[in-house]
Amino acid sequence: MKTSLFGHQRIDGVVPGIRGQRSFPTQAIAHADPFVLLDHIGPQVMPADFKVEGAPHPHRGFETITFMFAGNLHHKDNLGGDIVLSSGGVQRMNAGSGISHGGDMWGDESSGEFHEIQLWVNSPKAQKMSAPTIDNIKAEDIPSISKGGIHLRVIAGEQTDAEGKLVQGPIKTFANISAFHGQAAKEGEIEIQIPLAHDRILLYVLKGSVNLEGQKAVAYQSLVLKEAGERIKLSDVSGEFLLLTGQSLNEPMVMGGPFVMNSQAEIDQAYADYQAGHFS
Questions:
Q1: Domain termination site, one of 82, 115, 141
Q2: Same structural domain for residues 17 and 41?
Q3: In terms of residue numbers, what domain contains 18?
Q4: Chain-wide mean pLDDT for the chain?
Q5: Which of 17-21, 52-56, 130-134, 240-244 is least confident?
Q6: Rounded CA separation 135/133 (Å)
Q7: Is 86 strand, coil or helix?
Q8: What does pTM read for this prediction?
Q9: Are residues 147 and 118 in the same domain?
Q10: Does residue 115 share a domain with residue 191?
């Protein structure tokens, strides 16, 4: 089973005042179908008075998953949404036919840390103009399992625990994906079951290091598999990681700023609709 190792592009200041790492798209890797973008913000301990005002901006044609490992996001949108996503929480947003959103950001009240990932998941052509929706999941509503010294939060998809019980994650997207957030207090290992339809595996290391099928990755590096079997093994895990698996859409994809569509004409139409006020 062959893995490809990728570094990252620094994107400091995407959230003002905070370091940032982009796994993709970069010159080395354009995307990991069905995953379009992975931006890792932090981890960084911020001053007590740190607060960023996020300006409203539009999206269309894909879904975002925001993993708020530490910190807060006061999310507001043109659908009337007004909610705070706090440490440990996860938000899934279907931009669909068009949404405008923004929000203030600040550090965790106890530690001062700000640490998040925003993941863009491409939507199938048939769902790109679906009705926009948002799901906010609190930390306590995300199930987890413990195996081999690894604490694994099941965010999307499913996994069996040490007793063989099936654990289902709360996040569901139009694309067929799984998402797991793992942490090891000390070095451990774990086998992850992979749905047969999932032909794209991406491991992103948040902290420390992880060995995937004989290949080691350290913080801010990604390991990508284009094919997998029924399971993969993560070993020598010391730190924290995000594991994504998915079924490739194998559809034309054009990314134009905040829009992800199937053609340049659809991107142009999204900009025209935004200028005409259809996202407000």
A1: 141
A2: yes
A3: 9-141
A4: 95
A5: 52-56
A6: 7
A7: coil
A8: 0.96
A9: no
A10: no
Contact 129, 94 (CB under 8 A): no
Q: What is the pLDDT of residue 226?
A: 75
DSSP annotation of 139 reads G
Residue 65 · residue 16 · CB < 8 Å: no
Classify residue 197: in a domain, yes or no: yes
DSSP string, 147-179: ETTEEEEEEESEEE-TTS-EEE-SB--SS-EEE
**pLDDT at 280 > cutoff 90:** no
pLDDT for 149 equals: 92
Each residue's pLDDT tens digit, 224-264: 987 667 889 999 999 999 999 999 999 999 999 999 999 99
Q: Which two tokens stand for residue 28?
A: 């080395």
| 176, 186 contact by CB (below 8 A) | no
Do 60 and 118 fall into the same domain? yes
| Residue 221: per-residue pLDDT | 98
Q: Which residue has the tokens 């994650």?
A: 169
Sign of the torsion angle spanned by Cα atoms 251, 248, 26, 121: positive
Task: Say if 39 falls within a structural domain.
Answer: yes
Mean pLDDT along residues 204-222 = 95
SS3 5: strand
Q: How many helices (H) and strands (E) does the chain have?
A: 1, 23
The CATH number linked to 149 is 2.60.120.10
Structural domain count, the chain? 2
Which two three-digit tokens encode residue 50? 């740190």
